[in-house]
Amino acid sequence: MVLRFSADTVNEPITYILIKEYDVLINILNADITHGKEGSLLIEMIGRKSDVNKAVVYLESKQVEISPVVKTILFKESLCIHCGACSSVCFRGALTMDSSSRKLEFSPEKCVACELCIKACPLQLFDLNFGAN
Ligand code: SF4
Ligand code: SF4
Q1: What average pLDDT does range 84-102 have in this prediction?
Q2: Looking at residue 105, what is its pLDDT?
Q3: pLDDT of 127
Q4: Boundaries of every domain in the chain
Q5: How far apart are CA 116 and CA 107, in angstroms?
């Protein structure tokens, strides 16, 4: 999700409180924070659903604006050399090698954006895309 902080809350230790008091792990993917100005964080919140829900209530109490984002995988398919390295890590079957053509096939509807293919591809043809929900 994207958290947007007002100038009044930007200096509060909100991510620290989420971790310590709500038992929610915070993975910061992007940060745009400047002392005394409005700021934003792109984060993943990882934890039990009940803890995450309490953390969201806490954020709302601090007037932090919360926007869910959807993570998807971008694939530069035209540059693929069909080596198959990504298909061997894709447990969802979104990346498969066609047994007759020996070419990679991508089924985006099966992808859960686990990111394993990003590390597996020697040509770095995969990337993450974050869009608003
Ligand atoms: S992100 Fe995960 S599920 Fe999606 S294509 Fe890559 S390895 Fe498969
Ligand atoms: S690892 Fe990269 S180059 Fe190899 S098949 Fe997958 S996308 Fe194509």
Answers
A1: 96
A2: 97
A3: 93
A4: 2-67, 70-132
A5: 15
Res 114: pLDDT = 85
pTM: 0.65
70-132 folds as Alpha-Beta Plaits (3.30.70)
The CATH classification number of 2-67 equals: 3.30.70.260
CA angle 118, 28, 125 (to 5 degrees): 15
Rounded Cα–Cα distance for residues 27 and 1 (Å): 10
Does residue 24's CB lie within 6 angstroms of at least one atom of ligand 1?
Answer: no
Atom of ligand 2 nearest to the CA of 104: 5
Q: How far is the CA of 102 from the centre of ligand 2 (A)?
A: 12
Question: Token digits for 1?
Answer: 């999700």
